[in-house]
Amino acid sequence: MKVFVTRRLPDTILAPVHQAGITTTLWTERRDLTQAELIERCLQHDALLSIGHNALTAAFFEAVPHLKVVSLLSVGYDHVDVPAATRAGIPVGNTPDVLSDATADTAFLLLMATARKAIYHHKRIARSHWGFYDPFEDLGTDLHGKTLGIFGLGKIGFEMARRCKAVYSMNILYHNRSSNARAERELGARKVSFDELLSLSDVVSVHTALTPETRGRFDKNVFDRMKSTAIFINTARGGIHNENDLTEALRNESIWGAGLDVTNPEPMRADNPLLDLPNVTVLPHIGSATLETRKAMASRAIENLLAGLRNEPLPHAVNPEVLTGRK
Questions:
Q1: Are 113 and 223 part of one and the same domain?
Q2: 3-class SS letters over 49-102
Q3: Is 148 in the same domain as 257?
Q4: What is the rounded distance in angstroms from the CA atom of residue 227 to the CA atom of residue 254?
Q5: Helix 11-19 to helix 291-309 angle, to the nearest 10 degrees?
Q6: Are 4 and 33 in contact (CB under 8 A)?
Q7: pTM of whole model > 0.85?
Q8: For residue range 146-171, what is the model confidence (pLDDT) as tens digits?
């Protein structure tokens, strides 16, 4: 059997696949495949190990119904037409429960860097602007005792809240469909309405999935309802916030600052005006970018891949109703 892999991976990661007698073909060009290129290569293989954000559409799954499995090296799968995969009888696997700490660390990093305008001050040094001292110029903002509002308090949101509680004694609010008993018990978190989350929070941190309900949720109307001193953090998906509205909210001081690990589109253009604002920190989607986390993600992706090729249920299935691959 043969597997097509959309990125280069170390031999040590692919060793279990090769030990099982399975051949791999790696895409080595430093660009994403077009859908036509991806389909062409998948037609010559039995499975796909998808790394990156190639859109796996209904047309894709209709063109490659022979695939035994599609294994994602990601937790998110908003780029995959899961119903179409299910109709084609193709199981899809993802890599949950391994990047909560790494992504929460990134959210916390964004919060600290934004609150103290760290990237802006670094740029000042690079431009030789570290000179005359003005004690009330380019100041940051304190976080101690402030209120953190979590939009989507799952595992990553919990870890972000835990860090903010431990380090800055922050009060924790959250908005979820369901209650989070553990957060309420261990962190003193309080579930509130969306309007309350916006009006009461000094920091609003997004940790929800990108769905039709959350796409574009943070727009001008929402930013206008936040505190003028608030910081907006997004490490989930760029599509959850409207980037033009966010830029205007920062320029007209509807909110104080923003920290983003995700943008829309990705990658962000170098001339994006957000990059020139002093109270904005932007990172290139590095939420899970630690060696330990990426190895753990790869391990789960390989587990899913091998299970699908054996026509067994995937350990981490997005569509568990598809119990086996195509025979």
A1: yes
A2: EECCCCCECHHHHHHCCCCCEEEECCCCCCCECHHHHHHCCCCEECCCCCCHHH
A3: yes
A4: 7
A5: 20
A6: no
A7: yes
A8: 999 999 999 999 999 999 999 999 99
Domain shared by 213 and 258, yes or no: yes
The single-letter code of the amino acid at 270 is A
Kindly state the DSSP code that residue 183 receives in the 8-state scheme: H
Per DSSP, helices labelled H in the chain are 11-19, 35-42, 58-63, 82-87, 100-115, 118-126, 155-168, 181-187, 194-200, 220-224, 243-251, 291-309
92 and 108 inside one domain: no
- The answer to whether 244 and 230 are in contact (CB under 8 A) is no
Strand duo 92-93 + 69-72: pairing: parallel
- Structural domain contains residue 80: yes
Is residue 314 in some structural domain? Answer: no
What does the chain come to in residues? 327
Same domain, 151 and 186: yes
For tokens 């299910």, the residue is 86
The catalytic residue positions are 237, 266, 285
Name the domain count of the chain: 2
pLDDT digits (tens, 9 = 90+) for 240-266: 999 999 999 999 999 999 999 999 999
Cβ–Cβ under 8 Å, residues 145 and 168: yes
